[in-house]
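To: structure subgroup
Subject: Chain for Friday's discussion

All,

I'm putting the inputs and outputs inline so they're searchable in the archive.
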Amino acid sequence: MVTLDNLKDAGFQEDFHSERCNKMSCTEKKSSYTLSLKPAMECWKFQVDENIIKGTQYNKCDYLFVVKETDDYAEIFVELKGSDWKHAFDQLEATLKHKLFNGNDFLFRWARVAIHSCPSLNNIGTEKDKRIAEFKENYHCDLAIKNSDILSKDYFKGIKDNRKPKKDRFDISGYLYSGDVSKINTAIGVLYRKLYASKNPDMDDALEKGVQILSLLQDKKNEATYSCLRYVELCLQKLKPFAVNDNFVQLSNSMLVSFQCLYDADSGIFTLPEEIADQENDVRTSLLSIYTSLKTSCLFNGDDNFWEKL
């Protein structure tokens, strides 16, 4: 549900509405904020403080601007301040957490602190940058200390274009099942870097690719490259807080059994395919890491004694 519908259902009326608006602004004492629209768009302005959110015990921002372009909505939360930008950040964050604004549909959000006087603005540095990153990560919201913005139709289009699913430069699944060691390595390298860099990984996508890689290990009877093990290991570490699906767990346990059968207890070495024979120590380390992850999550189904001795 979009914010406008939420506010309407809750009985709140806008302070301003225009189907073709070029500019919206708000002012309090000496602080002001102006949003210019190019071209004119439909927009609404709501007073948040002591209207939508009431009570001195609550942190809340001053205003909310909503802009509609075709079927997409942008939301701009504004706090007007003298100089206390830290408190303004807290007020904006509390507003975004409010039930009327939390989890709504929108194309993008901005949070703006309009400051009248802040002589140390160029020196607030690290703390400001940290909060900006947190807003982006936690609320998908662009936070800035600004007294004005220009919002264009092209900006809406740019956001939409960036959110369109991008096709892989090559067919990942095709590379994984190509039988070509070089292509397998290339595909897993791309998947590994993507998962490693992600703070909030797409669990379903990561597991889907993990299942493909585990299937590859089974089908090839462990002739696949060491990079397969590295991805499975990373997948378990990254997704530890989540519920890993049964298919992935079963394949992981089956894969461990397969590698266990390749271990010669007398010689203390794995009988690995020639292509990865020189990676025995790396293989051993990854297998133990995978075992430990499954064991920690109570998902391991196998011979504990073997892996603990190994």
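Points worth raising on Friday:
The longest strand covers residues 31-47.
Strands lie at 16-28, 31-47, 63-69, 72-81, 108-115, 141-145, 148-152, 263-264, 269-270.

D.
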